[in-house]
Amino acid sequence: MKQKLSFLSLLFALIVLGSKVQAKETLVVKHIELGYPCPAIPFYHFSADLELPEPSIIEVQAVVNGKTLRATDLHRAKDAMEMDRPPLTHRPPSGYGLSQDGTLYKTPHVVGWVRWEPGKSYTIKLSVRIKKSVKGLADDTWLSKTVTVKAPEGVAVFNPAWKNYKSVVVSETAGIDRKSEAVELLLAFYPDEAFDLKREIRVVAVNPQTHALSDVPCQVYDLEKFMLEDDMAPDENGRPTREVPLWYPTVSARVAFTADVPANSSKVYLVYYNNDKAMAKVYSSQLKVQGEMPGISVGNGVLSIVLHPNSGHIDQLALDEKPEFPLFHRMETNGAIHWNPGIYSPPRPWTHTADWKPPQHINLISGPVTAVVELWGNLRDIPEVDASVRYEFFPNVPYFISSTSMRINETINCIALRNGEIVFKRELMTHAAWYDVIRGKVITYNVADMPDLTDLKMEADVPWITFYNSEEGIGFAGIQLDYTNAGLESRERLLNPYMYITGGPWIYWARALSLPFLSSNMQQMVPAMKGNFFTEKWAYLVYKIEDAENPYQPVLEWRKRLISPLRVHLEEEVDDRVSKSVQEIFIDEGRSGWEERETGKH
Fold first, then answer.
1. Number of structural domains the chain divides into
2. Residue 519 burial (C-beta neighbours within 10 Å; 0-12, 13-18, 19+)
3. 464 with 556, same domain?
4. Is pTM beyond 0.90 here?
């Protein structure tokens, strides 16, 4: 009897021990689902919460319907996601290729790209390598679990004829509802997935509540192709030069689309491509371009804009609801509204970009989302100085963007070096207003009553300036978005830089970079140094005065929006061809820094 009890006790102990061992070797899938794109995970995906037998250094692999995913995102349980915001952390393939993940995981969260179709079932095999050391050993244990998951039903996905897509999370940060606001980003593609990007790209918005997709107007332009392949041939002794390519041929392009994003929120947009059978899709908008460069006309449903026939600079502006009161200059030399960059280096004449007849280089991009005019070349008669002017127009808004740059190729002495000049016929404007940075308040000045050639000075970084006509109820404002001066061979050499307004037969504001001409000693020459570079960016706003007591209120409202453009976060699937190791080229006998680190893969 005692022997029988001992045998039963031993058998029970072995069963318990076996169950414990089995429990230790079990991978638990606590939760798994197929999900819609959301800001934190902006792609169609599976997500799984796992539980390991004990905290371990791990690697995770996912196989969906027999296909091994090239990459999965691995997160710690404590790294909580804000599902309505873009992801905060990301470990790219280069990170995995350069460094082992030495983190101890007990309840990891795993995410992977799965382009599922509604209502279909998917077999997902999750395998976890339990590593005995950071670098892993041949006898490491693998734990696996296979589950079948049914995709959500009821909401259509995009046409599978488009084989790939990229995800874009667009975020609003100024507390203003955005409607049909233009967003631009640069995207890179493999050539065998980019047949005719202008024809095949589609952009869709993901409704954050219903997950439904809606087509949005888009525009593809500025394509560049780098088609050179890495030479993987062995060296002269037959030895491999490297294990993986350093690069792949790449096609890059700008894509613009219109986004609707509620205040203080994030929204997902998907950019579909890789469909060689796609038909071109024509989107219509209020943005219309007529004529031939450089003297085109642009209408956007709010503004009518005419560029100068010689220089391509802004020559005339009108609000569509007030066509009887166009804004113009046409008093001095070329007569354009927008004049600079420019320089005066006597005995050579004053010269401005507005004096181009025509610019050496001209480019026009036109479409439903944006029209871009690009002009660049030497200043006339001044080969020492290159300059550029770029205008960006958008539908249904009362503003356009102007970017100007000036590069000093060789040191040149000058009496005037200026940028950012806007000129009108004097009788068109009655007042000027600007925010005075030093006084901390808005200054309003009656320019109709201002003595000729009396300068009104303001700081170089003045947030905004406006001219307006209080009788006609119309204004023109400049909202400063960016301003940078830099030097390569020499530090920038600027004499008392500032912004100013002055009047004569015209009324204008301009940026003085170096301007002895308006100083007490107007004949002194100051060098603009070789390698100096000057650039600035403004939004120019034409507006109707609604409140006579606060004639610049529209400027303040539009400035809040314009200085806080929509933020863009790009998320892309890891392509199967991306190598799992990283090979870098270092100058001299460079070290990577990973040599003494346990997690390094070098």
1. 3
2. middle
3. yes
4. yes
